[in-house]
């Protein structure tokens, strides 16, 4: 079962991103007082009354058309029609109804999906002077809110969850392993998905860009539950011309954000390309478990040194991802495909692994004895205490004497010692430093 999707649409400058950030509880979308500003991310998970849904901010494209507003409206409405179960149509309660609002409303009425008309920028409990004008749109009672100060947000969310279609998954299930299959176009992502599922769930075509949306497929393997997210191939920016292609790139990036594990699919016939390093970088920066899957291995001429040479190339081009296991497979011939699912489960467990504080401090203490921390102007870094503060990815907080004395090379040394003793294969590790308060 897929999670409900709620799309925010509306003309520029009505407060779409402000509402998105308010519902997300953090600043994800870039908010600028300029129409058409590009945003880095457009998805977030939202919870209200123990019901979970995916929220999309449809703003933030760079239209090719000279008519920026018409192009934006069209793209936003199309995205909402394609993906959303509920659409939030945001209008400006201060400035009143515009012709652009009328055009968007006309498009949204054709979706046959629940559309909630949201009057934003109503910053007091008094009704907007333009309130009744919006009945002209034929979208029912306007819901007044102020996204900037949070007024009316609870009432809006009540209406949102009332309009979810039946049969969608609104519960949070931490036992589900979410896997994003990412990589360049034509690397064989859909073929790998179909092979894992054992049936033709996704259309496979040799034409680059066939998979335009991120497609979620839920399945069970024994007692294990998985959600596979097949994504559009991430292309170089210069090749992304259509607006729909731009959204495909964003969907690929945000698929990684939604996942626990990223399968980074690389075409064996091309080797590791610059674009592959960018895809891997996204997964690393987002703190996801990763498996590097070299597909089409059957098409490579090889001898007894080929695989080792390939591993060396991967490690050289992806030095930040030394922790990621590498699988050489062929979705076409089924070579080593049986290893993917067990490896996904393994790195997912490593991603959520916790280590005991006592054991961690024993390892850190021994590491410090073997290799003294760096010093600067006669002052040496002291590590008083270490503890694991979170998982997915594993986060370690070190209590020290002075943050200025921390150095990347020593952090890497400590990371290696932690991996030697506790594993954490397939997952990045994060470090935080806190200065211990001096006694007065």
Automatic annotation (TrEMBL):
GTP 1 binds at residues 10-17, 57-61, 120-123. Residues 4-168, 177-352 form the EngA-type G domain. GO terms for biological process: ribosome biogenesis. Gene3D superfamilies: 3.30.300.20, P-loop containing nucleotide triphosphate hydrolases. PROSITE patterns: G_ENGA (PS51712). InterPro entries: G_ENGA, GTP-bd, GTPase_Der, KH_dom-like, KH_dom-like_a/b, P-loop_NTPase, Small_GTP-bd. One of its GO terms (molecular function) is GTP binding. SUPFAM superfamilies: P-loop containing nucleoside triphosphate hydrolases. GTP 2 binds at residues 183-190, 230-234, 295-298. It holds the Pfam family MMR_HSR1. Keywords: GTP-binding, Nucleotide-binding, Repeat, Ribosome biogenesis. HAMAP family: GTPase_Der. NCBIfam families: GTPase_EngA (TIGR03594), small_GTP (TIGR00231). PANTHER family: GTPASE DER. GTPase that plays an essential role in the late steps of ribosome biogenesis. Associates with the 50S ribosomal subunit. Belongs to the TRAFAC class TrmE-Era-EngA-EngB-Septin-like GTPase superfamily. EngA (Der) GTPase family. This is GTPase Der. It comes from Tepidibacter thalassicus DSM 15285.
């Amino acid at each position: 079962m897929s999670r409900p999707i709620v799309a925010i649409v509306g003309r520029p400058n009505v407060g779409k991103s402000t509402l998105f950030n308010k519902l997300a509880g953090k600043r994800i979308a870039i908010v600028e007082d300029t129409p058409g500003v590009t945003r880095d991310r457009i998805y977030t998970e939202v919870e209200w009354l123990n019901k979970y849904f995916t929220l999309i901010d449809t703003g933030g494209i760079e239209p090719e058309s000279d008519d920026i507003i018409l192009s934006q409206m069209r793209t936003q409405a199309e995205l909402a029609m394609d993906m959303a179960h509920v659409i939030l149509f945001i209008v400006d309660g201060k400035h009143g109804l515009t012709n652009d609002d009328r055009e968007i409303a006309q498009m949204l009425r054709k979706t046959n999906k629940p559309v909630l008309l949201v009057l934003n920028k109503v910053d007091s409990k008094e009704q907007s002077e333009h309130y009744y004008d919006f009945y002209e749109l034929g979208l029912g009672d306007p819901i007044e809110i102020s996204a900037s100060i949070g007024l009316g947000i609870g009432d809006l969310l009540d209406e949102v969850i009332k309009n979810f279609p039946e049969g969608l998954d609104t519960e949070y299930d931490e036992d589900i392993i979410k896997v994003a299959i990412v990589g360049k176009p034509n690397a064989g992502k859909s073929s790998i998905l179909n092979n894992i599922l054992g049936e033709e769930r996704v259309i496979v075509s040799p034409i680059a860009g066939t998979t335009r949306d991120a497609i979620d497929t839920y399945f069970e393997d024994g007692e294990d539950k998985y959600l596979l997210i097949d994504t559009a191939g991430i292309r170089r920016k210069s090749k992304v011309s259509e607006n729909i292609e731009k959204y495909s790139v964003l969907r690929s990036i945000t698929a990684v954000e939604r996942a626990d594990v990223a399968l980074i699919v690389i075409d064996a016939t091309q080797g590791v390309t610059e674009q592959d390093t960018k895809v891997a970088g996204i997964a690393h920066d987002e703190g996801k478990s990763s498996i590097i899957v070299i597909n089409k291995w059957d098409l490579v001429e090889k001898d007894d040194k080929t695989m080792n040479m390939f591993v060396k190339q991967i490690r050289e081009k992806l030095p930040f991802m030394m922790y990621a296991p590498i699988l050489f497979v062929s979705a076409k011939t089924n070579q080593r495909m049986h290893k993917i699912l067990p490896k996904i489960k393994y790195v997912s467990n490593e991603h959520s692994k916790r280590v005991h504080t006592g054991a961690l401090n024993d390892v850190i203490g021994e590491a410090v004895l073997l290799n003294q921390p760096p010093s600067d102007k006669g002052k040496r870094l002291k590590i008083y205490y270490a503890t694991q503060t979170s998982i997915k990815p594993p986060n370690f907080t070190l209590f020290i004497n002075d943050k200025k004395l921390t150095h990347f090379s020593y952090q890497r040394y400590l990371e290696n010692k932690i991996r030697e003793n506790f594993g954490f294969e397939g997952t990045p590790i994060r470090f935080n430093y806190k200065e211990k308060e001096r006694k007065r």
